[in-house]
Amino acid sequence: MWWMMNEGGGHYCSKKTDDICGDVCGQESSRLSLSRIRCILRGIDLKTYIFLFILVPICIFGIYIHGQKISYFLRPIWESPPKPFHDIPHYFHENVSMEALCELHGWRIREFPRRVYDAVLFSNEVDILTIRWKELYPYITHFVLLESNSTFTGIPKPMVFASHRDQFKFIEPRLTYGTIGGRFKKGENPFVEEALQRVALDYLLKMAGISDDDLLIMSDVDEIPSKHTINLLRWCDDIPQVLHLRLKNYLYSFEFLVDNNSWRASVHRYQTGKTRYAHYRQTDEILADAGWHCSFCFRHISEFIFKMKAYSHNDRVRFSHYLNPKRVQRVICKGADLFDMLPEEYTFKDIIGKMGPIPHSFSAVHLPSYLLENADKYKFLLPGNCLRENE
Q1: 162 and 124 in contact (C-beta within 8 Å)?
Q2: pTM for the structure as a whole
Q3: Percent of the chain with pLDDT over 90
Q4: Termini Cα distance of the chain
Q5: DSSP assignment of 180-246, as one string?
Q6: At residue 29, what are phi and psi to the nearest 5 degrees?
Q7: Do residues 283 and 240 lie in contact, with contact meaning Cβ atoms separated by under 8 Å?
Q8: pLDDT tens-digit readout, 225-258
């Protein structure tokens, strides 16, 4: 009888349970014994095994490989778009007088043009620097260039400009060239080194003789204002104190037009004690169709690989095979992304619209004149010439 069993020290529990691993009457051990683990595993069906040992590792590996893509695709959720620029329409035709052009922009013409300083930090972009300075040469009062023996990421580099200086004799009388020693702090945020070099460029500008109301172009070497843009700004009064330039944004060459949204280049009416050389947004005013930004527009595969490791976003090289020369060449001709990234946009519409390789462009209209005049030398920058030299 059940009451006799109870009186004899036995235990009875009327509670029903589906736990096949529970002790008699639900009395569970306080420790997780090996036999209990076996019992738990016997209760797991095949689908659960598949999920635990196949699907979960695959998901973890997928996140490791494509985590950056997932983050960029979800960017519209965690980051709001920046405030829109106020676009200033850009009017130009070679047969229209400068006075009429200034009036079209709502500005007055000056009695004489302002002096113009073009200041850049230089790494190794010899071809693009040549095209830039040939484009701007007629309207630049003084060229200022700063070079370091270190990349922003702390990698030693040769003084490339110094070794190619003979190629730039045409601007030598107007050139102030300076050098700065790197600190070689690997692992430090690259933007720290970049900021220090831009501060040094401020001092170099003062040595070059810049003064109040001179125009100062602040842009990277590969952000090239068109010469008619600079001529307009030096001749017109009442232009904004600071003005960003909206550039056509190209990748690898002028065959791959990404968009018209490159905006970091700017022109300043210099103010002693106030103007600081920078490469971020400094105003809401931007002049439309003001030039070209040709990013990663190199002649040699080795130059692509060097920049991938050297520039401020080197953390995008997540896997060593990204630097394989054959892969780099395939990516260039395809118009794909060297870092296998999604577009850096702020809306799902823009991200999806720009996914995949950049469409090929077959237009070589309205490009820097020196580039077209020397097409044989710079054919790697023109449509239909994606193959690069292996040096």
Answers
A1: no
A2: 0.82
A3: 65
A4: 95
A5: E-----TTS-HHHHHHHHHHHHHHHHHHHT--TT-EEEE--TTEEE-HHHHHHHHHEES--SEEEE-
A6: -65, 145
A7: yes
A8: 999 999 999 999 999 999 999 999 999 999 999 9
Q: Which residue has the tokens 């590996």?
A: 61
Pairing of strands 236-237, 108-109: antiparallel
- 142-148/242-245 β-pairing: unpaired
User: What is the mean pLDDT, run by run of 10 residues, along the chain of 391 residues?
Assistant: 44 47 47 63 63 70 65 78 95 97 98 98 96 98 96 89 96 96 81 89 96 98 98 97 98 97 97 94 97 97 91 77 95 95 86 91 96 97 95 67
Assign domain 84-296 to its CATH architecture: Alpha-Beta Complex (3.90)
Structure confidence at residue 345 (pLDDT): 86
Question: Tokens 């529990």 belong to which residue?
Answer: 13
User: Please, which contacts does 175-179 make with residues 24 or more away whose CB atoms are closer than 8 Å?
Assistant: 175/142, 175/143, 175/144, 175/145, 176/142, 176/143, 176/144, 176/145, 176/204, 176/207, 176/208, 177/145, 177/146, 177/147, 178/144, 178/145, 178/146, 178/147, 178/204, 178/207, 179/146, 179/147, 179/148, 179/149
Contact, 170 vs 177, CB < 8 A?
no
Phi, psi dihedrals of residue 95, rounded to the nearest 5°:
-95, 5
Whether the Cβ atoms of residue 254 and residue 382 lie closer than 8 Å to each other: yes
